[in-house]
Write a structure and sequence with these properties.
Blueprint lengths: L1 H29 L10 E5 L5 H10 L5 E5 L5 H11 L5 E4 L5 H14 L4 E7 L3 H11 L6 E7 L11 H18 L2 H11 L1
Parallel strand pairs: 1-2, 1-4, 2-3, 4-5
Helix pairs in contact: 4-5, 5-6
């Protein structure tokens, strides 16, 4: 009996340890960012802080001659003004119809084809890169474009798992990732267009 109890305790302890390690590492699993490569355009998805700054930094370092900003209608003016201070008008492309990661990919693809781009750096937040890569790779698969995914890093005052909002963002990203894996975004976007 004592032996069974000991074995059960060790099993529970080991399972708790594995779960704790998985939780602590879960944020890094979402960040599948790559090192930037010289490209035709930098596509930056609006949303979280640091994305636009990362895109401008890459632009200033000469990784691309153009920046394409993908953001919903109504959000573009503030971001556009910020970008135009750093990027000449001829090197700036605005996409302001997207409202999801899937529509970011579909609308930027149309513009990329129109401008005859062959390569792009896609910039998003660290926790958002894996889902971004999943959907952009699917949407762009027939273009022959070479896509590189670069994550913007946030300055965290404390570890992400000690910040309630960051924990919520991380956990919700896993739910969204599963939905995107099964291509549920198509039905959600089609429903939104029908409404």
């Amino acid at each position: 009996m004592v032996r069974k109890l000991k074995r059960t305790f060790l099993l529970i302890f080991f399972a708790a340890l594995v779960l704790a390690a998985a939780f602590l590492l879960s944020r890094s699993v979402l960040d599948s960012g790559q090192h930037p490569k010289k490209s035709d355009v930098i596509i930056v998805l609006s949303g979280d802080r640091g994305r636009l700054e990362k895109a401008i930094s890459l632009y200033e370092k000469g990784y691309a001659k153009s920046i394409m900003l993908s953001t919903p209608v109504g959000f573009e003016s503030k971001l556009k003004d910020h970008l135009r201070k750093e990027v000449p008008k001829d090197n700036f492309i605005m996409e302001n119809h997207a409202s999801t990661t899937y529509t970011n990919a579909t609308y930027t693809k149309q513009l990329a084809m129109k401008h005859h781009f062959k390569s792009a750096i896609v910039v998003s937040s660290d926790y958002h890169i894996r889902r971004t890569k999943l959907v952009f790779d699917r949407v762009y698969k027939d273009t022959g474009m070479n896509l590189t995914y670069v994550s913007s890093t946030k300055d965290h005052k404390q570890p992400w798992f000690m910040d309630g909002l960051e924990v919520k963002v991380t956990l919700s990203e896993y739910v969204k990732l599963v939905g995107y894996y099964f291509e549920l975004y198509k039905s959600v976007d089609n429903q939104a267009k029908a409404d």
